[in-house]
Amino acid sequence: MSIEQNDKNDVSLEEINQIIKPYFSSDQFDDFLFNYIANMIYIDRPENENELKSLIGDYLSDRLKYPEDKKNQICKDINIKLHKSGIKGNRKAIIAEKLKYPIKLMDVNVGSKNTITSLSFDPNALTFQMDKMYAQGIVQSEKKIEFTFDKKKIKEMEKFMEEKEKMRESIEEVTINHDKDESHKVDINIPSFTIHIGGKTLIKDATLKISFGRRYILIGRNGIGKTTLLNHIMRKEIDGIPKHLQIVHVEQETILNDNPLLDEILLCDIERTKLLNEVNEINKKLLNEKKENEIKKLSQKLIEVNKRLQDIDASEAENKAKFVLLGLGFHEDDFTKKTKEFSGGWRVRISLAKALFVMPDLLLLDEPTNHLDMNAVMWLEDYLNNWPYTLIIVSHARNFIDNIATDIIHLQNQKLTYYKGNYTDFEKTRNDQIKLNHRLHEAQTRKIEHIQEFIDRFKYKASRASSVQSRIKQLNKMEIVKEILDDPSCIFIFPKPDKINPPVLRLDKADLGYNGKTILEKVNLNIDMNSRIALVGANGSGKTTLLKGLDGKIIPMNGLCYRHSKLRLAVFAQHHIDQLDLYLSPVEQIKKFYPDNTDEQIRNHLGKFGITGNLSLRPNYLLSGGQKSRVCLALIVMNNPQIILMDEPTNHLDLDAINALSIALNSYEGGLLVVSHDQNFVEIVCNQIYMIENKKCKQFRGSFNY
Fold first, then answer.
1. What range does the domain containing 640 cover?
2. Considering the entire predicted model, what is its pTM?
């Protein structure tokens, strides 16, 4: 690389060297470090004293131990001399030069002296005084505004939440039915049903066709009514669903209590629990009973109870429960933990574990992969592929869908359309249908125009009256080919960030953890504006800890976290949507943090993430999970970040939105680090994979699939 001199009268690197040299003692700054500082000034072109201080202030205070007033005075003096010498605020253009020798990028050790360019930049030069140079995290300097609501709005939301809670409490406890017969192996065929919610029609005159033993994936745009449909099926509110069927919908976290995890799962087998308690009671009575007749009766009862326990395979229940829990990512140490001690994502897994343990006639899963790591997703795929009953799953994880689906149900335009096969088959079939429909529609339109032209031409001629009438009848009898209307394209647009020169964000031999406990050891990770990094690893391995270290929420116990002084960092947390103010609308949510923007500016910005029209004015509690995710995306990029850290960004988004996000991130001109188990998304967006395992974070030399 070389630096192009744009203006011959501008200050040169040699002049900058001469200006700053008197202020840096040679015994504390070797030539390499001194040249590094001069190059920073030459490249960044500080426009005033404060910008200069942000570049070199730490070197003056940390390395030279200058007090604050002396540091300020030196920056003021250097700034005056630089501007007298003609330094200009515009940046130098960096021009690519042909390398003298070929290199293999995968052999380059980023951050080592092997990566020094002609600018003499070496990030290792930043590692001195590590206790002073760490990331402080983003501080929102903008003023916040508080929104107040009238009592009517508060009551509306409280009523909405109360109704949801009552609905949740009314759901029957998940239990095992040991007496299933052939009557449970039934198909559901309802020729027509309609669903209205809050005065809005979500589904109209649709057909529900569910065949026993099939694995259906329900797809459709965010907010279109998929979860509502599952709720209606689960509560059997659609006329025609057999009342005797056991239907379980896994959507919510488990209800918290003091039960140990393993016991909570086993308690789903109510009959087994009751029989085991009965065995204990009989044994206690036998110990104290003296009468021979009573002993004989109790012994006979004990034989009957044990026979029933054997019939329901009670001895294998604990092994089955452990198998499910371990598959979903729990550890044996978790089995004795109380359910109330688990966090939100793990509580959803407990609900999923209970449903898998119970094995209902019809299992409804709503985004089951959202809270699972890669290993748990692969286990769940295998488990569901051997599921002996009927499944309906809402999912937007394309590879997961392709691996388990036997059928696709497409919810669109208030109708349900059924396709055989997985999502790849659905896409091909639907595209073929649209092309064929388009050809038929065009051909019919041309035919209608030709007939109408004949009618218009001869309708006043008596000699052609019979021919005209014949063609009018032909038009009336014609079955019109309705054009298949596809959903409008979903497009996300990320703002263009200001360029900053590397190093931008870097962890160097950083130990990260909490309360003196190390979670990750000696992490080396460099993120610049060209980075496209995927971070993978099992749940609990330290992915979130690494993000917090980069974000500045935790400080390295050892090592360095360096952040460029002008870096704007955005973080999309996995549970970001839980932090939205439910009372606020999307416009008000953003205005709370960016009060200087007008409502029109905010609505235009939200529109770039699919939150358009009245949707931007509705309270957040009325939005679907995917719509809330879009609001969060719009919020975090409002300040034009140069680096974005994302933790499972595809959770809750529909397939079209995930595709739009992939395209937007590929066009985004900043750096990116993504925690995700969505294989398709990672392969489209990222070109590097880092894996966390055994407290280490290392680059993985292979594809996500491998």
1. 505-700
2. 0.67
